[in-house]
Every structure is written in structure tokens, then in C-alpha cells.
Amino acid sequence: MKWKRIKDNRKKTAMRHVERLLELSLQNLDEHPERAKRYVEIARDIILKHKVSLPLDKKRLFCKECNTPLVPGKTARVRTRAQRVSITCLNCGNVKRYPFYKEKRQFGARRGYAEKKYPGGLVCVELAHKDGQIRRIKITGDFFFYPEERLSDLEHSLVKAKVSDVGAIIGRFYRDEKIESPGMGPESLAEVIEMAAKAKS
Ligand code: ZN
């Protein structure tokens, strides 16, 4: 029986710090614009140092020229044309253009992360969801899941599933695939997935 190991823990921490900094930056934008820019600057240092790749919706939160957090209607002007979206930084005038299909696909998708320790081990879940539907999901951690190679099949079966159906889907998967995970059950996995879906990213 093999173990699933936590990978890139440092990267995950870096990612959490970056997301927190971007959040703080937005909170400070009105009253302390210089501080808001400084937080973006620090976040970008961390991104470079740890080679963190941000999801598209996060990448567009700040101006790459002057580090101003971009908020449509406040610090940014967003224009949509036939094939693309342009975002103008109202602080320095820098314009970024993106193909529209990406914007459409990513728009509104939320990311979440959660972890929980059970007698069987630590379960970590990272996912993206929109309108209660899972778009992407990665289950990692340090727990028994046998046969191990079925874990990616389980992830696959959860893509496009409704978060509210996750418990039923995993239960069925355990029965059909004769999954064994000593020290935790299908309901444990479902619990962490629901936590990740509720987590604020
Ligand atoms: Zn700018």
C-alpha cells in the first residue's frame, strides 16, 4: 500500500500569502492607496520567488506596470469588444488585452482549499467551482486510498458534479470500485471537498 504525500507545501503557503496580500491590498485601496500598491509589490515578489502561478482572475487584479489593484469602475476601465477584453489602469494608463473566450471561461469561477486530519491521515482538497458546480479538483495529502491509482478517476468523476452531490458520488465510487481507506470513509473525503467549496479564496 502506498502513501499519498503532500507536495509543494511551500508553494501552497506562498499562494495563500499572495492571495491574502491581494485581499489586503483591495481593502486598503480607498484609504491607503500607497499601502495597497506596496502589498501588490510584496505579493509579486513572492510570486516570482516561489514561481507561483496565479489563476487568471487573480492575475488581472493588479496593474503590472504600477502595481495598482484593478477594480472596474474605480481604478480600472473594462471594455469588451467582439473578440477581446481590454482593461485600462486608470492610475498609469497601461492597457491589457485578453482574448474573450478565456475571460468567459474563467469569469466568476472561485477557488477554494481545505484540509482536515482523520485517523487515516491528512486530506487536502483544492478546487475551482462556479454556480455550485466543480470545475477543477485536486485531492492530495497523506492518507490511505487503495487502489491508489483510482484516486485520479475519482477526481475525474467529480469534475462538473454539483457540490451538493459530492457525498453520493463518492459513496457510489467507493462501492463500485471497492475502495478501501482505513481510518476514514467516503464521507470524510466529501466533508473536506464541501469545506473547500465554502472556503473563501
Ligand atoms: Zn497602472
In this entry the ligands are: zinc ion
What distance lies between the first and last C-alpha atoms, to the nearest angstrom? 34 Å
Q: Can you give the helix content as a percent range?
A: 40-55%
Query: How would the global form be characterised?
Result: elongated
CATH superfamily of the largest domain: CO dehydrogenase flavoprotein, C-terminal domain
Proportion of residues in extended strands = 15-25%
Written as H for each helix and E for each strand, in order along the chain, the element string is: HHHEEEHEEEHHH
Mean pLDDT comes to 85
CATH topology name of the largest domain: Enolase-like, domain 1
Instruction: Give the uncertain stretches in residue-range form.
Output: 101-106
* Estimated structural class: alpha+beta
Rg is 20 Å
The largest β sheet comes out as:
3 strands, antiparallel
Give the strand tally.
6
Specify the number of helices.
7
What does this structure look like?
With about 200 residues, this protein is of the alpha+beta class. It has two domains: about 1-70, Single alpha-helices involved in coiled-coils or other helix-helix interfaces (Up-down Bundle); about 100-200, CO dehydrogenase flavoprotein, C-terminal domain (Enolase-like, domain 1), CATH 3.30.390.50. It has helices at about 10-30, 35-50, 55-60, 100-105, 150-160, 165-175, 185-200; strands spanning about 75-80, 85-90, 95-100, 110-120, 120-130, 135-145. The longest helix is centred in the first third of the chain and has 20 residues, at about 10-30. The two termini are about 35 Å apart. Residues about 100-105 have low confidence and may be disordered. The chain binds zinc ion. Zinc ion (ZN) binds near residues 63, 68 and 91. Zinc ion binds near residues 63, 65, 66 and 68.
